[in-house]
# Entry
Amino acid sequence: MTSDLPRRLADLLHHRSAGLQKGDPVALPLTTSTSFHLPDVQGAPYIYARNGTPTWEAVEAQLALLEDAEVVTFPSGMGAISAALFASLRAGDRVIIPADGYYVTRVLSEGFLTPLGVDVVQIPTLDYATADFGGAAVVYLETPSNPGLDVVDIADVCARAHAAGAMVIVDNTTMTPLMQRPLDLGADLVVAADTKAPAGHSDALFGHVAGRDAKRMGRVRDWRRLSGAVPGAMEAWLVHRGLETLEVRLERMCASAGIIAARLAEHPAALRLRYPGLADDPAHDLSRRQMQGFGFLIGLTLKDATVAEDFLARCPYLVRSTSFGGTHSAGERRARWGDKVPEGFVRLSIGVEPVEPLWAAMAEALR
# Structure
């Protein structure tokens, strides 16, 4: 944890306190109004809900404290990714994206950026360490990669990309700003799906873009306003509430993930295991230097698709869903979505259950 992050977490919990008047609600009120009283426009804090609402303002204030940067929120992680890319690219530009990262980013790039005249180049995450970024306008990376959990040196990539004249966008969904701080390492923009751990309860789609360059963030904010890719009030309210417990949830989730990963590594059913917190993981040394924790995701490779699906079906404490970062532990066989992983690869997201009952259920399901 960076030196000033504890103070930022305390400020997050009390970011509204100084403005409270006698009798005001301590919990953030849910403001659903799309219209605001405008006898005149000058000085009005809110004009129309596509421009901003009190609920957005509150959750953006929280996220800004965590990122130590300006934040613009979106109705999903892909909304944030789309905004960052479309606000940064134009016809004729080249963008480098991970071939093994979140697959929807690839689908978006191939289906919409390429037809608009953007040259989309895909490379594996580990190849970023030696890639030539010459000619690129944007270098987009995701570390640890989803779902393979490969890790690349963000500071090194940023330095080489900037030297080549490119800006850097980092998807920090898997780690959150509590465990990894790409802006501090040189990234120009951070994108994240707050649907995952920040919201934490699998009941709100949300995302954000963070950056420290006012002009660049102005472009992102304009994209939201003009495209209409705006978050809902209820979702913003849910994320605001979820962020208040993010630190304590992550502490439990990551501690449990470390215990379970170590036990899975010794299990005969595990053909391969990826967890950056294990001393023999290929990403361990870099993760120790770059991250303030090892996360709650585990990559488990079982014999084949049948064994993997049977394991997931037999474990009562693993929700079978295509998301992660929630309070419930979850597992998914990722090859079914076309990810370039073995058929028996399972992405595990460890939740907040007591670790021993969770492990006992997993071990029984692997028998």
